[in-house]
Design brief:
There is one protein chain. This protein has 2 domains: 13-188 and 257-413, no CATH class; 203-254. α13 (278-289) packs across α15. The chain contains 17 helices and 2 strands. Helix content is 68%, strand content 1%. A two-stranded antiparallel ribbon has the order 1-2.
């Protein structure tokens, strides 16, 4: 077996370049979001942009370390890394202090890390390790169950931490399973279950149950009356009714009051422009005021006067929209699409099943974050508090995404060699 002579051999520099560009855009956007004339130095670590510069420096060092480590390490120790992250999640659940209702941070002095962010790449590694085993077939029920457990275990612990947004990210791994052969019927059923759940929040459940029963009866009359067809229709009707009946419980018991308010505002059940709907309303004003070309760097009035809360973290996109307008926002989305395309291209050129599965995990996580974060900022999705990859302020987010991406870059650099 041939060996690599340099850690930079076969590195995908286009992916690295997209990473660096996005990180730079993130830093200048954070600078713009919190800029004031009293604190204008880019090295002022008392401000978010100064701290982010330190996080960026740390990210570059982490990237180099990830590249130095032998690619086979990530395959060999995937389960161990996953297990350690589960322990960190449990530690955060019991040892962390309450931060905005969530127990999700491990603090060591002034240093804070959020294990939920790092659990994403660990889960991607573990899932890739399991699905790449020679004897594993996605068609088997055992494979589906174990894959689901790998994904839902960290998600369940994160839910117990009251960090619903981070927990929902793990649902994106369904795309990994689909790529590996999971039936498209599962995706279709999942989509309609989610759609039915949303409709049940807006329509009286008795009326909705009557509609489901009527549709089932009509289907039985119109379709061939074979035993298989009738049983299938009845099972779908019962499952749909179960989803409708579970909505009230999930809505009342599983969601926090502020989460319920945000959903109600999004669905138009209440108007609360000074409360739950304030962030989104101000974000829309900021983005809309940017027009086609934006107001210019450091010229955003909504940003400058702090009208948008969390504008350097969850709502960083509105800063970009206000200062760089539609053109700047469109370019940012194109950069993300370019990164996602490149990751999928990397995935499909692999000889190693482990690297391919992991690459799809990376793409799924980044896609979910981008879609939901931008969707929150423009009022299409409820506010669940997840960062925009490489852009939002925060060390845990930036470091975890750096590790996530550079493990893939390292694995890809080994694509012409035998991984196992």
């Amino acid at each position: 077996m041939r060996k690599q002579t340099s850690i930079f051999q076969n590195i995908d520099w286009l992916t690295v370049s997209l990473y660096l560009v996005l990180m730079f855009i993130g830093w200048i956007s954070i600078y713009a979001a919190v800029y004031n004339e009293e604190h204008s130095s880019i090295l002022d670590i008392s401000q978010n942009y100064g701290k982010q510069l330190l996080w960026i420096g740390g990210s570059l060092m982490i990237a180099i370390v990830v590249l130095i480590i032998d690619a086979r390490f990530y395959d060999a120790f995937a389960y161990l890394i996953y297990g350690l992250m589960i322990l960190f999640l449990i530690a955060a659940l019991f040892l962390s202090r309450d931060v905005k209702g969530a127990h999700a941070w491990i603090e060591i002095g002034a240093f804070k890390l959020q294990p939920a962010e790092f659990a994403k790449f660990a889960t991607a590694l573990a899932l890739a390790k399991y699905l790449s085993l020679l004897e594993i077939k996605i068609e088997k029920i055992q494979t589906k169950i174990i894959s689901s457990l790998i994904v839902t275990l960290p998600a369940a612990i994160i839910l117990l931490q009251n960090d619903t947004g981070s927990a929902l990210v793990f649902g994106s791994f369904i795309f990994v399973l689909y790529r590996e052969g999971l039936s498209q019927n599962v995706l279709i059923i999942g989509f309609f279950a989610a759609l039915l759940f949303v409709i049940a929040l807006m329509v009286d459940k008795i009326i909705l149950l009557q509609i489901i029963a009527a549709l089932a009866a009509v289907s039985v009359l119109l379709m061939r009356k074979t035993r298989k067809n009738i049983v299938t229709i009845m099972l779908l009707a019962v499952a749909s009714a179960a989803v409708v009946m579970s909505v009230s419980y999930v809505y009342e018991k599983a969601l926090q009051p502020h989460q319920k308010q945000r959903i109600d505002v999004l669905l138009g059940k209440q108007t609360d422009l000074k409360g739950a709907g304030y962030n989104v309303n101000q974000s829309l004003i900021a983005i809309g005021s940017g027009g086609i070309s934006g107001k210019g760097f450091l010229q955003g009035t909504q940003t400058k006067f702090d009208f948008v809360p969390e504008q350097s973290t969850d709502f960083i996109f509105c800063t970009i929209g206000e200062e760089w307008g539609f053109i700047g926002s469109f370019i940012l989305i194109l950069l993300y699409l370019g990164l996602l395309y490149r990751i999928l291209f990397i995935a499909e050129r692999q000889k190693s099943a482990f690297t391919r599965v992991y690459a799809y995990g990376v793409a799924s996580i980044i896609f979910f974050h981008v879609m939901v974060n931008i969707g929150m900022a423009i009022g299409l999705l409820p506010v669940i508090g997840i960062p925009l990859p490489f852009i939002s302020y925060g060390g845990s987010s930036l470091w975890s995404f750096t590790i996530l991406l550079f493990i893939l870059i390292r694995l890809d650099s080994y694509r012409t060699f035998v991984l196992r």
